[in-house]
Specification:
Helix 1 crosses helix 3. Strands 3-2-1-4-5-7-6 form a seven-stranded mixed β-sheet, with helices on both faces. By secondary structure, it is α/β, with parallel strands linked by helices. Helices cover 41% and strands 20% of the residues.
Length: 256
């Protein structure tokens, strides 16, 4: 689903804020995901009525920056601890400086230790993109997002699909579907996926968290732009059934 010209232009402006190396690596790999997500959001959320947004676990802050370019009051929270020079999205300091210089209000905090430092009902839209699979207590995270979202406001949540075809093939081959053992065993801090979820599990969590799912789609957006025969074959093989695709995007509305 394609975003409007305004959103597409905002994304292009956002990408141009990053240095060339990051554009070639992290942004190029994820660009189709950004386009797909913004298009899906626009199809459900009346962005013209949105005033304030929050990017929870913002990372490089692509969505936060795009919202700022669109004229929203944009906020971002993260620890940014894993952003060192080896990260394809770039190191921590220039990343945070880029956000601050482009009208994104940032807060440094650990989502699992600290409450979100905002008043109840502060935001019209909260983004939580590729975050929930990294946290040990999804209830604590979703409860905080529910609190700071206004009544009738929106949560946009993206996460890998635990039941994707690649994982099913790994299990059949006797391989693990978890993160690399060396990172888990030897690493001083682990930033990988603690738990991935199925489509039904995401629906259940959002229901428990008092969000009403309005749209839940699956996609292979990160692969669609790849020219390799393997990527194209994978997309073709998963086209016929949504539960086989790599990721899911849920758009849900806060219930009273």
């Amino acid at each position: 689903m394609k975003p409007s010209q305004a959103c597409a232009d905002a994304l292009e402006t956002t990408v141009a804020l990053f240095d060339q190396q990051v554009r070639r690596t992290g942004l190029a790999w994820n660009y189709a995901k950004y386009v797909s997500a913004l298009g899906a959001v626009e199809s459900v959320v009346p962005l013209g009525d949105v005033q304030a947004t929050l990017d929870v676990g913002a990372g490089a802050g692509v969505y936060a920056l795009a919202m700022a370019v669109l004229g929203k009051s944009s906020h971002a929270v993260d620890t940014w601890a894993e952003y060192d020079p080896s990260n394809p999205m770039g190191p921590r300091e220039p990343l945070m400086r880029r956000l601050a210089e482009n009208k994104v209000a940032i807060q440094i905090l650990d989502l699992m230790k600290d409450p979100l430092p905002y008043h109840d009902g502060s935001f019209d839209v909260c983004f939580c993109m590729d975050v929930i699979e990294h946290v040990p207590k999804p209830k604590a995270l979703l409860d905080q997002i529910w609190r700071v979202t206004r009544g009738g406001g929106w949560l946009v949540l993206e996460t890998p699909n635990a039941a994707r075809l690649a994982n099913r093939a790994r299990i059949v081959a006797g391989r693990t579907v978890y993160h690399r053992l060396s990172d888990w065993y030897h690493g001083a801090a682990f930033y990988g996926h603690l738990r991935e979820y199925t489509i039904a599990e995401v629906r259940q969590m959002l229901d428990w968290a008092r969000f009403q799912v309005v749209s839940l789609t699956t996609h292979n957006a990160a692969l669609k732009g790849r020219q390799s025969a393997l990527s194209q074959a994978y997309c073709a093989a998963t086209w016929w059934h949504c539960s086989l695709r790599n990721e899911m995007l849920a758009i849900a509305r806060k219930l009273p």
